[in-house]
Structures
1.
Amino acid sequence: MKKTAFAILGTFFLIIVSGYAATKPRIAPPPLRVEVITVRPGPLHVWVAGYWKWAGVNYVWVESRWVKVKPNKAWVPGNWKQVGSFWAWTPGRWEKINKKK
């Protein structure tokens, strides 16, 4: 009976811990990869650099790519930042361009 209770408790603990670890990496992402910038498909495209994405137990590389420019917006790349003992990802985004007169 005690063995069964400990097995259930242990399994529950592992599920909770693995779910928590999957959302917040404790190790820094690897250095960025060097990628070759390919030929620009057109004047309305901007290069979005690749980045490391947390996949629950390790990082996976998301390749760089060309994306269409959004009118009056600039691409701000994402970044990793250490927050306490964890690493937090801020995704890249389009930001409105402030035009001064």
2.
Amino acid sequence: MFCQQCGHEIPAGRTACSACGFAPLTAPPIAPPGPPAADPIDQVVTETKKAAHELVRASALLSKRLVSTAQSAAKAPSASAKKAAKRVAKELDDAAKEIDRILKNL
């Protein structure tokens, strides 16, 4: 502890400063108890869930846009291009559904 008057270090158990004689020494005020601090783990979990929701929403939006693009490409004149585009559209549509399912479970 240090003297409130001169800043000299005061050994434990003493009631007056040996350098300047300042007495009585007062203990710092005790702060009233406030609400308990949030558990850091809970805070990390909450922030992670929020980030996961944002990521899933963005992924779902991207997937839906890609499905639309693949469906447009399926209208191409080449039979192999149509087949590939349809397959991609189906896979992306399945991925979008899975993302929506995951989002609902978070």
